[in-house]
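Model it.
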Amino acid sequence: MSDAGFAVDVRDVTVAYREKPVLWDIDLEVAPGVLMAVVGPNGAGKTTLIKAILGLIKPAAGEVLIHGRPYSQQRHRVAYVPQRGSVDWDFPTNVLDVVTMGLYGKLGWVRRPTKQHKAVALEALRKVNMEAFASRQISQLSGGQQQRVFLARALVQEADVYFMDEPFQGVDAVTERSIIELLRALRAEGKTVVVVHHDLQTVPEYFDSVLLLNVRRIASGPVEDVFTEENLRVTYGGRVGFVKFVRQQSGVDNA
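Modeled.
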């Protein structure tokens, strides 16, 4: 599946706003078939990193490769689920149309979707238990339902690499469980999934790899190696009174 060893290869990426570094000299190598969390405090640059990888923000320095090639050449192999709060949910369209938009990379913007394309979109909705809402206006959905629709839109792209920005934000426990099962299914198919995540307590349960980020890369790699009290304290500037609880919950520390 991998053309050059890594699904995602970030090399010396720096992003600055008005000369203030938001990301500084980031190196990151993500192997194919990995489910990775990106965690860090508010303002750490988590969303900025995803946008820089996707070319939505131009880095001041560095480069990003997707399966060995620039993102501009690999766009068709990548799917992106942005933060739900960044979307205009009042836009007048229904659920099926939103999911079908995920096929436009293959269709182009001129060709109209066929019955076969609509069938693909409905199958993706079935996978996220939203098939019954296909004709519903997106503005009428709950937060968790909206998130499921965005996941379905990503699924129809049949990508090799998925980037998801806070997919668990504002969803109920049942939706969260269904989303993580879906992400694990993607990993089982050899897909690479990179998730901006805020809940430290669930990192050891949900993910096999983690990037700890605070403007700089603090550490990255397998959860059992990287998700340590020392690394978390560096990442959060010592503001981690919850670290011992997190480690106890994950079975790492039984003291």
